[in-house]
Design goal:
The structure is a single chain. The chain is an alpha+beta fold. The protein has a domain at 29-91. The chain is built from 1 helix and 6 strands, in the order αββββββ. The strands form 2 sheets. A 4-stranded mixed sheet has the order 3-2-1-6, with no helix packed on it. The relative contact order is 0.18. The chain binds zinc ion. Zinc ion (ZN) is lined by residues 25, 28, 30, 57, 59-60, 62.
Length: 92
């Protein structure tokens, strides 16, 4: 088989597997989610400084960032919630 054909076949498998992984992650409740507070500060123009949080899910390996000002609190439990309402544990 030609290299081009083999590479195309492998690339198609990767596309399909990434889609499958994305589907699994969409259904994950992100139990055990952690959030690490980070900052990008000290910029010459301080209005460029940003404060964000990096989330990591131990179940599905999803990780993403959001601005800290999007963090919410559960009114009843006081838990920290991501923008989409996933409970997380702050870590360093
Ligand atoms: Zn997850």
């Amino acid at each position: 088989m030609k290299i081009r054909t083999r590479v195309d076949k492998v690339n198609q498998k990767i596309v399909n597997l990434r889609a499958e992984l994305e589907q699994i992650r969409k259904t994950c409740p992100h139990q055990g989610l952690t959030g690490t507070y980070r900052a990008n500060v000290g910029n010459y123009d301080s209005s460029s400084d940003t404060y964000y949080i990096v989330y990591r899910c131990p179940e599905c390996d999803a990780h993403w960032q959001e601005y800290q000002h999007d963090i919410r609190r559960d009114k009843e439990t006081g838990d920290s919630l991501s923008k989409d309402g996933f409970k997380f544990t702050p870590t360093n």
